[in-house]
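Aim 2, interim progress. The first record below pairs a target sequence with its C-alpha cells.
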Amino acid sequence: MVVSPIHWKQCVFAAKSPRQVQCVENIWCLLEGITLWTLWIERNDLVFNNERWNVVKIHKVIWDALLDYGRVAWNRCMKLIKKTPRTKKKTYSKV
C-alpha cells in the first residue's frame, strides 16, 4: 500500500503541507483551487441543468485549466524577460 504524504485536509482546507511537498506548494494550491472550482461548476450544472458530468470530463476540465494557468504564467515570464534590459558583463584585463 502506498502512503501519500498529502492528507485530505491539505487538499480541501489548505492545511500546512508536509516538508516533503513544500517545494510544489504553489502548484498544489493552484490545483486545489482549480479542482474546487471545477467541482463547484459541475455541482451547479447538476442542480440547475440536471446534467451530471462524467469523471473523464471532470479530469479534462481540470487538466485544461491547469495548462491554461501554466500558459499564462509562461507568457508573463517571457514578457518580463523581454522587458528586462541586458547588461554587458565587465571584463577585466590583466595589466
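The second target in this work package is listed in the same format:
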Amino acid sequence: MVKRKVGRSLAVVMVAAAALLVGSVTPAQAESVNTFCLAQDYIGRTLRMDGVAYYYTSGSYHVWNEFDFLLQGPTGGESNELIRFYDNGPEVWNWESGDNLSSYVWYGVGANIWVLASHTERVWFKAIFDNFGPDPRCDNSTPTI
C-alpha cells in the first residue's frame, strides 16, 4: 500500500513538472515596447495612461500578439482607449474599447499581426478619461521598431 502511494505521488509530481515546462515554452523570445502620456482634469489632477505592446520574431516577421494598457487617476469608470498599429506608415490594425474602463486596472487586448521585420512598426495609444467637465485626453506612440 505504501509503495502504491509513493508511486502515485511521484507520477503526479512528474506530470505537474512536465505541465509547468510545457506552459513556459514560447515561440520565440518575446519583446515589448512601452509608452505613456499625461493629462490633467479641470481642477489640475494628473491622469496617466501606460501602454505596452508585445511582439516576437518568427523568421523574417514580427508577430504582435498583445497590447496592454493602464489608466491612472480619478476617472468616472467610463473611460475609453484607442489602439492603432502602423506598418511602414499606414494604419493596418485598430481597436477601440467600450465606454466602460476603470482606473488602476491593467487591460489586455489580444492580436495576431504579422509584419515583415524589415518594416518600421509602431503602436499608438490614446486615452479618453471620463471626468466631470471636459474629458481629458492624452496619446503617445511607442518607439519605432
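The chain has one helix and eight strands. This observation will shape the mutagenesis plan for the next reporting period.
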